[in-house]
Amino acid sequence: MRRITLEAAGVTLSALLSEPEGTTPRAVVVAVHGGGMNAAYFDGRARPQLSLLTLGARLGYTVLAVDRPGYGHSAAGLPRGQGLADQAATLRAALHDFSSRWDTGAGLFLLAHSYGGKVALTTAAQSGLPDLLGLDISGCGHEYALSPHETPGSHTRGRLRMNWGPLRLYPPDTFATSRSLVEPMPAYERAELDRWPELFRATAPRVRVPVRLTFAEHEAWWRHDETTLTDLAAYFTAAPRLVVDRQPDAGHNISLGWSARSYHLRALSFLEGCLAADEATPARRPASIS
């Protein structure tokens, strides 16, 4: 694993890159972190086997974990961050830069968490991202599960519980090893939290690639009862495939818990299905031999 930078229409983004050894990648997993954390969220140090960057490369994928605008290298130049639409445009530009310099195999697969899921959906709903295979999103729904006096951007005493769930779901040294991945949520990002239910309803119908959504068993930020999930799924009218899954024994920060490896393997299995579907399309089939 190494650190790289990507040029994105005047913005320089930092990223973590992990590549398979001795072979070209099957595809690139683009990991997009949530609010208040940076790209190292996908490289959980409490236990090496929990790291998406390590696992993905061992299974033949390049994994690119990008620091979103306002995090990592770009924090100094974008102290207030960017709104969703601008973040999606910046991410698209960064991935064009990446694709011009690295082998991307069959294409790009966005694996995103929490606020990063909002960015991934917004990015996929807009045109201009080459060879997008699909989306896998955890910790992001369309209806907040909050008390009437709370707002998504409020600082409440229950915020720690909502972000993590029961602490037994995480290795004992998780918090000690996670200090370097925590960063402040930029102001523009925080300001748009309340608008997501409205933005989701305009965004989801424009996503035209397979989508998998995962809700942790102890997810506390989002409503995920069966009625709510049925309503959520109904908005993905253009997606060729939609999977809504649940991850047992997990809290909101799913990629840092004991269940991280299980979740990552499920996500990569979904990517394998996207690759199979891509290979089976008429445009990708080899000519028949007579």
Summarize the structure.
The chain has 290 residues and is an alpha/beta fold. It is built from nine helices and eight strands.
Name the features:
290 residues; alpha/beta; 8-stranded mixed β-sheet
What is the topology?
Elements: E1 2-8, E2 11-18, E3 28-32, H1 52-58, E4 62-66, H2 84-101, E5 108-113, H3 115-125, E6 132-138, H4 159-164, H5 174-177, H6 187-191, H7 196-203, E7 211-216, H8 226-234, E8 242-247, H9 260-280
Parallel strand pairs: 3-4, 3-5, 5-6, 6-7, 7-8
Antiparallel strand pairs: 1-2, 2-4
Walkthrough of the structure:
A hairpin with a 2-residue loop joins strand 1 and strand 2 (11-18). The chain is α/β, with parallel strands linked by helices. Helix 2 crosses helix 3. It has an eight-stranded mixed sheet with strand order 1-2-4-3-5-6-7-8, with helices on both faces. The chain is built from nine helices and eight strands.
Distance between the termini: 46 Å
Shape: globular
Q: How many distinct beta strands? A: 8
Q: Which structural class is indicated by helix and strand composition?
A: alpha/beta
Rg from Cα: 18 Å
Share of helix, binned: 25-40%
The largest sheet is: 8 strands, mixed
**Strand fraction band?**
15-25%
Q: Give the oligomeric state.
A: single chain
The low-pLDDT segments are 285-290
Order of helices and strands: EEEHEHEHEHHHHEHEH
Number of helices: 9
Mean pLDDT: 92
Widest β-sheet, arrangement of strands: 1-2-4-3-5-6-7-8
